[in-house]
Amino acid sequence: MTLRTILTIPDPRLKKVCAPVIVFDETLRILSDDLLETMYAAPGIGLAASQIGVLLRVLVMDCDKQSESPNPKVLVNPEITWYSSEKRVYEEGCLSIPETFAEVSRSEKVKVSYKGLTGEDNEEIFTDLWSTCVQHEIDHLDGKLFIDYLGAVKRGLIVNKMKKLKREKIKDQKQNKKTKGSP
Ligand code: NI
After folding, report:
1. Ligand 1 centroid to 109 CA: how many Å?
2. How far is the CA of 170 from the centre of ligand 1 (A)?
3. Which residues are catalytic?
4. What is the reported pLDDT for 180?
5. What is the pTM of this model?
6. How large a percentage of the chain has pLDDT more than 70?
7. Residue 15 pLDDT class (50, 70, 90 cuts)
8. Protein residues within 5 Å, CB atom, of ion ligand 1
9. Which residue, 134, 112, 113, is CA-closest to 46?
10. Residue 182 pLDDT
11. Cβ(111)–Cβ(82) under 8 Å?
12. Residue 3 Cα, ligand 1 centroid: separation in angstroms?
């Protein structure tokens, strides 16, 4: 397993629509292992392949905060086939948009059909936090971020904040290099 770098906005890869997985092989298993390791290390409760720059319809989740043992889920080519009319509002964050949280309203329950690592068909109803999370992650596979649900002004402020953070990080790295290089 390899810890992968999580892309942050405004990386253009986060806006791409991901392609369905066609081949269910060892490469896919390695990808899912890397996604899980990277998600747990972050730490996060969900991660989509596009967030590590792999533009395939694969996501991982573990929203079982109560349980002591991990409950990882890998969803390949997931599709929401039913949305409950009842909504749930949750203050969402995203590993690709650090230190930013905002309330998003989504269906309280969804039915999702997806494939497993060996290509087997699965169908599952997700509720509560799992429902919020799976909808957030499937959005990633379509190049959509939770800040896209906010107004343009709020979204603009968040994107500008991230650009500034990135510039400061690069500046810091350059300064560190200079310091290292001097006698
Ligand atoms: Ni996210």
Report:
1. 19
2. 23
3. 137
4. 61
5. 0.91
6. 96
7. very high
8. 94
9. 134
10. 56
11. yes
12. 17
